[in-house]
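Re: weekly structure request thread

Next one in the queue (451 aa):
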Amino acid sequence: MLVPLNVRTYRIAIINGVIAMAAIRMADESTILPLLVLKLSGAAWVVGVTLGACTVARAVMQIVISRRMDTLEYKLPDYIASSWFRGACGLATAAVLWYADLLVPAVVVAIVALASAARAAGGAWGMLGFTDVLAKSVPTTKRGSLWMWRRLVGLGIALVVVAPFVRYMIGPTSPYGFPQNYAVLFLISVATFAIAWCLFARIKEPPSRPSGRTLPLAMHLARGWRIVHRDKQYRRLIRARLLLGLASGIRPFFVVFGSKVWGLSDEVAATFLALQIGAEIVGSVLSGRMSDRFGNRSVVIGAAITISVTAALAVAAAFGEWNFAVAVGAGELSMQVAVLGACFVFGGVFMTSHGIGTSNYMMDIAPQRLRPSYLAFASGFTLPLALAPVAYGWAADALGFKVVFVTGLVLALAGLVFARKLPEPRDDLDDAELEEFRRPPTAEDEAPGPS
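Done, posted below.
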């Protein structure tokens, strides 16, 4: 956990994250993609299938590729290869949307869903390399601040620049009609991502202590099963991640609920995106500071609390009568927008705290030679998350959104119980060592490895 700090990698990773955060919001998977698929298909279950396919693609890609990456001394080449793959998938989505008028609607939906799943797989592949480089270059007492600055500045740019641009592109004054307006968003997203990818490709990666050989796939899967049975911390983290992930599967259906049940306009998606980004900014600061000072267990528990509040607000939205407005200054505020907006606010805090807490916790407990496998099997054992959006989409159409949101609340509360059972890995470290590694980074900490 207390590796030497490479200041250059630390700083490049922050800048990379700032740029990538802006790119992600152009084609956000919890707001933009669900709304796009809903408008293309008209069915909530198709949204669920698309999001479920993304989850499956991430898990399968990481499990398959990790057995090879365990044996690699350097992981950066895989990160670069994954960037090319992700870029191609994003461009394919933009192309099919631009020429959608020439294609059968069902074909457009299918290609968008497949390209989104492939793009998610590429992101999961790249994340194995990215995480391994960070774990070798940044100590645990600096990882919280690294993720905080990546998200804080990136989300600030997204809030000031990206959210208004998205609102303009999908609003009535857009220079492009549907779905060409979404094609432009995906194209700009890829172009922005390319800058982030090229920047991180210039870091100097320290060598790893690789595993001895590439196992056959069957033996690799058996090793994953042994890991989860032998490592109690890992097993508890997976249980908490699974429950919290299943609970958070209701988040993409907030905008679907607002559109189908309350008849809110497409423009409101940009409003919700802005609220979510603002909440993530606040969550980044809180989670980053908590991670550095108190450890990552506290951040995971905070994530469990926020998703529980999110689900409770969604239940209130589904069961309450909110079709009225209240006076705010010289204008009025729709309570429907206010209640759903609150869901996006707490959901945004959850996204940040869950991402920072679980990824840093995983880096704390994973042995270096098996780090890619630890990350991959964490996705594999949470593969039921892929069924969540499919089930939620079917339930929304067949049973109504009340069932969906109540289910999310029950799962969130169960996840909170399991999160509280996690031990804190830093409790085994020496206090003097921790204080030394908490000091601000300086140029003397620079420890470049081979390119």
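Residues 7-443 form a domain with the Growth Hormone; Chain: A; fold (CATH 1.20.1250.20). The radius of gyration is 21 Å.
Next request, please.
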